[in-house]
Amino acid sequence: MDKDLAFLARCSNDELKFLFDILTKKGSLTEFITTSPEYKKYGKDYRQYVDLLAQEVLDFGSNTFWFREDYHTVAKDACKKSGASCNSSDSVEEIESKMLSRVIDKAWDKFSENDKKAFVDGCGYSGKNSHIVLKGAGPGMFFTLFRQAGFESYKMSVIIANTLSRQIFNRGLPFAANAALTKWLSIFTGPVGWALTAGWTVLDIAGPAYRVTIPAVAYIGCLRNIKKYQGKG
Q1: Which of 83, 95, 98, 165 has the fewest CB atoms within 10 Å, i.e. the most exposed one?
Q2: Domains of the chain by residue range
Q3: C-alpha–C-alpha distance, residues 153 and 135, integer Å
Q4: 193: helix, coil or strand?
């Protein structure tokens, strides 16, 4: 398995299900997972063939059937197609964080002032600090939050993953039903939820493969943060 996807082996079946659905339903015409012996044997026990899920991500993100790109290249291409900027020298975590911070940034202008304040308060800022953060909000700040904010990064990752699932498949994720997230979840509904994934509704322009790789990379970035900060709140 690609070294940058090896952490997926630590994910639960609940966490892997959405990745499986992206690959098999968004990529239904060309995916190979559901015809594989592993799927026929293990079905919904995705942990038993997580390496096959990782391989499928790379296959969708590669430009040719004859050569499989590494995940760093796939993530970088998906990040750029999503409208975020990144560099070849960026690490995979930096690329994913730039992509996710772009998601928040695109939704920010749709937030009411109360929503913005609730978001910032949820990130652990209050009083004078809250005012400073609100004034300087933008991709740079959101990128910093994803990279350094600990439990707040975990919360944002769960909520983006949950919102993405709702927009694509009209259902939330079971592991997002967490009391600590209830207040934030209320911010990311309705028009704001649609703003979060507005860029993913026109992926036909980018090409069929990006309908799979853009949400897959975004979700993998969420999962990476979830596993990094899980239990630290």
Answers
A1: 83
A2: 3-229
A3: 20
A4: helix
3-state secondary structure of 24: helix
Q: How far apart are CA 108 and CA 200, in angstroms?
A: 17
Distance CA 218, CA 160 (A): 9
For residue range 171-190, list pLDDT tens digits in order. Answer: 878 877 665 666 666 666 65
**For the purposes of burial, counting CB atoms within 10 Å of the CB of 43, is it exposed (0-12), middle (13-18) or buried (19 or more)?**
exposed
Radius of gyration, CA atoms only, the chain: 17
Rounded CA gap, 195 and 204, in Å?
18
CA distance 191 to 189: 6
Q: Which residue has the tokens 């990130």?
A: 123
Distances (CA, A) of 53 to 60, 136, 227: 11, 39, 18
Q: Tell me if 86 sits within 8 A of 79, measured CB to CB.
A: yes
* Cα–Cα distance measured from residue 97 to residue 79, given in angstroms and rounded to the nearest whole number: 10
Q: Which amino acid is at 47?
A: R
